[in-house]
Write a structure and sequence with these properties.
InterPro entries: Homeodomain-like_sf, Transposase_Tc1-like, WH-like_DNA-bd_sf. The protein has 7 helices and no strands. The longest helix has 28 residues. By secondary structure, it is mostly helical.
Length: 164
């Protein structure tokens, strides 16, 4: 059920202070009596119908949230740490990378996580290429071997052109 509006809460408090019972107010406004009871208890505790909530205040405005989303739509490989460093939130506070990730998740987007580890060298690239090439040859040899075992299998040498 949606939250009660401020006007409706004040109306409830007015009815209760006028002497109406909790059940009568609930019946009048077509809400559950426990809702009115909780509101009455909170009014007694805080002496206001607009009690404080325990949520943290947002550190970015909706315009900044849109800007964060727009930046990551333009550069989908951008890490959240770069965006956090470039964005200044409310009251001249820096925002954290986790805030950026939260805002992107709300828009069903994701930030790229920065690579952690050693960057591959030229030798690593060469070794990986040799490994991949040897396994391609091994894979083709395996297909040729399986085509001899299965006469209905035809392969032209390309991985995608194999037919049964």
């Amino acid at each position: 059920m949606p939250q009660m509006s401020q006007v409706l809460r004040e109306r409830v408090i007015g009815m209760l202070t006028a002497g109406m019972s909790t059940r009568a107010v609930a019946r009048e406004l077509n809400v559950h009596f426990s809702t009115i009871s909780h509101l009455q208890r909170r009014f007694r505790e805080f002496h206001t119908s607009n009690w404080p909530h325990n949520r943290k205040l947002c550190v970015t405005t909706p315009a900044q949230d849109f800007h964060i989303q727009h930046i990551h739509l333009q550069d989908h490989l951008r890490p959240a740490t770069w965006t956090a460093a470039a964005t200044i939130g409310l009251y001249n506070q820096r925002i954290s990378a986790q805030t950026v990730r939260n805002r992107l998740r709300e828009a069903h987007l994701h930030a790229r996580r920065p690579h952690q580890g050693l960057d591959p060298t030229a030798v690593c690239h060469r070794n990986r290429l040799e490994w991949a090439n040897s396994h391609i040859i091994w894979r083709l040899a395996q297909e040729v071997f399986s085509s001899r075992m299965n006469p209905g299998f035809q392969c032209s040498g390309q991985m995608t052109d194999c037919t049964f």
